[in-house]
Write a structure and sequence with these properties.
The complex is a heterodimer of chains A (about 325) and B (about 160). By secondary structure, chain A is mostly helical. Chain A has one domain (about 1-325). Chain A contains eleven helices and two strands; from the N terminus they run αααββαααααααα. In chain A, helix 1 (about 1-35) runs parallel beside helix 10, helix 3 (about 75-90) packs antiparallel against helix 4 and helix 5 packs parallel to helix 11 (about 295-325). Chain A is globular, with a radius of gyration of 20 Å. Chain A starts with a helix and ends with a helix. Chain B has five helices and five strands; from the N terminus they run H-E-H-E-E-H-E-E-H-H. The N and C termini of chain B lie far apart (about 50 Å). In chain B, the strands form two sheets. In chain B, strands 2-3-5 form a three-stranded antiparallel beta sheet. Chain B has a two-stranded antiparallel sheet with strand order 1-4. By secondary structure, chain B is an alpha+beta fold. Chain B has helices spanning about 1-15, 55-60, 100-105, 130-135, 145, and strands at about 40, 65-75, 85-95, 110-115, 130. Classes of the chains: A mainly alpha (about 325), B alpha+beta (about 160). Chains A and B meet through helix 10 of A and helix 1 of B. The structure holds iron/sulfur cluster (SF4) (2 copies). One iron/sulfur cluster binds near residues 98, 99 and 100 of chain B. One iron/sulfur cluster (SF4) binds near residues 56 and 112 of chain B.
Chain lengths: ~325, ~160
Amino acid sequence: MVTLLIILGKVLVGFGGLLLLAAYMTWMERRVFALIQVRVGPNRVGPSGLLQPIADGIKLMFKETIIPAQADKVIYVLAPAVTLIPALAAFAVVPFGDSVTVLGQKVDLVLADINVGILYIFAMAGIGVYGIVLGSWASNSKYPLIGGLRSAAQLISYELSLGMSLLGVVMIAGTLSLKGIVEGQAGMPYIVLQPLGFLLFVVCMLAETNRAPFDLPEAESELTGGFHTEYSSMHFAVYSIAEYCSMITLSAVGATFFLGGWRGPLLPPVVWFLIKVLAFMFFFMWLRASTPRLRYDQLMGFGWKVLLPLSILNVILTAGAVVFIG
Amino acid sequence: MLGEICKGLWLTLKHSFKNRVTVQYPDVKEEMPVGYRGLHKLLRWEDGLERCVGCKLCSAACPVDCIYVESEENDPEAPTSKGERYASIYEINELRCIFCGYCEEACPVGAVVLGNEYEFCQDDRGKFLYEKGDLLVERTEDHPELHARYDEKNLLTYV
Ligand code: SF4
Ligand code: SF4
């Protein structure tokens, strides 16, 4: 009974926190953008505009849902959920704190510590793409279709390198479990041993979450809204929450693999974890405000001709180092 | 490429420490510069007489025909303006006005000016028809900024 309650509590705290964080990322993104563009940003609703995400949520809920006449209605409605659910589910294996004692039981602050954790995350990220492709296909409109095609091609190209970039850490740690990887970084974070891997990971992470400079699937200037052009009201909100959730999840993966997860001096582990995730998120936003979008052929060329060879090189070098140095 | 991205990041980082350019509008209101073309005003002379002599030049100059003037002879005993005639009806349809400023350039006596006021939203189209009473200033001394627009020869100082 107690175990069940604890599991329930963990799920509520984990996913509730993730959704709340995702909603507040919209606020943070707008504030960071404003900061860089010498503006103020949302500051009217609540102190410093902190209630803005809630106001936005309420507004979107009361907006009319528009489904194009030619759309495949069932798939059109389901597609945003197909993106959101894997984005949430992927977070389940990320440890967000050290173990704590609740009601006399030792509780690990991770929703599910499975021994193939990182494979699970990739599997979920892979399913998430289906949501984008299905949504764009079901809209039966030109812009979303192009956005969806770009998305499919981009994610196939960059997922390989993303996996490869983490392989170095997996080899050093000798485990696929994220909890094990955090434990392996007790001495020093893996970014010290895997600087190239970290760099590759950050680049692939941007491409994987469709963020600038790799935001070709949504490319406002050429495809209006890309894959979600036809979406409105809550369906649209679900897409954007899913995007922020997958950003947070990948930031959490990055923090776990390279920056030592929840480890850190003085402050409680959960706080350290949040700081590291937010640092990644800030970098996402900062980069989006600073870089122009890549051209499509540049994107493909960069993925296959630069990133993939580099990540393979990184894997070989790390493998050699692990075998010969130990 | 990495170098250029770092350069861009550094630039945006520097920008985020600059002073904000945003004006928190309803709370903070900016002083409009001399020559700002807002809501029209009809001016008076220092002795209280109306400047407008009802010559209809502003109406003729207006590219969208939004000024309507009717003039009458001044009563010699108690004149309304300094000329022979004065405007008995003076209406501006602010909804049609494009705030080009031709009326104030056309006026020979510097009577009509585009003032500093820019907050005149209405909830009804009819309310945008401003009559003489709405446009005429009460006392000259209250509007030094509008008089500052004309020199002693009644020529606009800023065009
Ligand atoms: S500002 Fe231009 S449009 Fe407006 S009343 Fe004067 S002349 Fe007409
Ligand atoms: S405002 Fe000036 S131009 Fe217009 S009728 Fe009066 S005196 Fe003539």
